[in-house]
C-alpha cells in the first residue's frame, strides 16, 4: 500500500489514521450513537491514566475506527460542558519515541512527558492543540495484541 504521508518530519512516522475519538458522558449514549449509524463494536477497554472506559468500532475497507470515550472521573467529564463531542484524531506511528523527538525539535509540546499506556495493546501521547490549529492529535504505537476477552475493568480486577 502506498504511503500517503510525507516522507519527512512527523509524516515519515505515520502508518495510517488509527481512529477518531469521541467523548460521550455515558455508555448508553455511545451505544445509541453506534446503533443509529450501524457501527459494530470491535472491543472495549479502560484507560487507567485518564479513568475512562472505551469502545472501539470495527474498521477497514476505507472506514476508520471510532473510539468512544466514556470518562468516569477527571477533566474529560467536563469535555464540551459535559455533553461530549469529537475529541481528537489519532495516528498510528511506527516509533512513538522517535516521533516525539521530531515534535520536540519543531518546538512543539506533548501533553505527557512520556508515552502513556492506553489499552494494554498501545502506548499513546498527544500533541497539544495550540500547535495543530486547535485539533488534539493522538499518537499511537501498537505494542501488543488486542485483548478481545477484556471487559471495561477486568484488567484492573473489577469485573463489570
From TrEMBL:
Phylogenetic lineage: Bacteria, Bacillati, Bacillota, Clostridia, Lachnospirales
InterPro entries recorded: Glyas_Bleomycin-R_OHBP_Dase, MMCE/EMCE_epimerase, VOC_core
Domain VOC: 16-142
Protein name as it appears in the record: VOC family protein
PANTHER family, alphabetized: METHYLMALONYL-COA EPIMERASE (PTHR43048), METHYLMALONYL-COA EPIMERASE, MITOCHONDRIAL (PTHR43048:SF3)
PROSITE patterns for the chain: VOC
Annotated SUPFAM superfamilies: Glyoxalase/Bleomycin resistance protein/Dihydroxybiphenyl dioxygenase
Keyword hit for Metal-binding: yes
UniProt keyword list: Metal-binding
Record's keyword annotation contains Cell inner membrane: no
Originating species: Coprococcus intestinihominis
Amino acid at each position: 500500500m502506498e504511503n500517503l504521508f510525507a516522507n519527512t518530519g512527523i509524516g515519515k512516522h505515520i502508518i495510517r489514521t488509527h481512529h477518531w475519538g469521541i467523548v460521550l458522558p455515558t455508555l448508553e449514549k455511545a451505544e445509541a450513537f453506534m446503533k443509529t449509524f450501524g457501527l459494530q463494536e470491535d472491543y472495549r477497554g479502560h484507560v487507567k491514566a485518564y479513568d475512562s472506559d472505551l469502545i472501539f468500532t470495527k474498521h477497514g475497507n476505507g472506514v476508520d475506527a471510532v473510539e468512544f470515550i466514556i470518562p468516569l472521573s477527571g477533566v474529560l467529564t467536563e469535555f464540551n460542558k459535559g455533553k461530549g463531542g469529537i475529541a481528537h484524531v489519532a495516528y498510528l506511528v511506527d516509533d512513538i519515541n522517535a516521533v516525539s523527538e521530531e515534535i520536540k525539535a519543531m518546538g512543539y509540546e506533548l501533553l505527557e512527558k512520556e508515552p502513556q499506556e492506553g489499552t494494554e495493546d498501545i502506548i499513546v501521547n498527544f500533541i497539544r492543540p495550540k500547535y495543530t490549529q486547535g485539533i488534539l492529535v493522538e499518537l499511537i504505537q501498537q505494542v501488543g495484541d488486542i485483548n478481545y476477552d477484556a471487559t471495561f475493568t477486568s484488567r484492573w480486577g473489577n469485573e463489570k
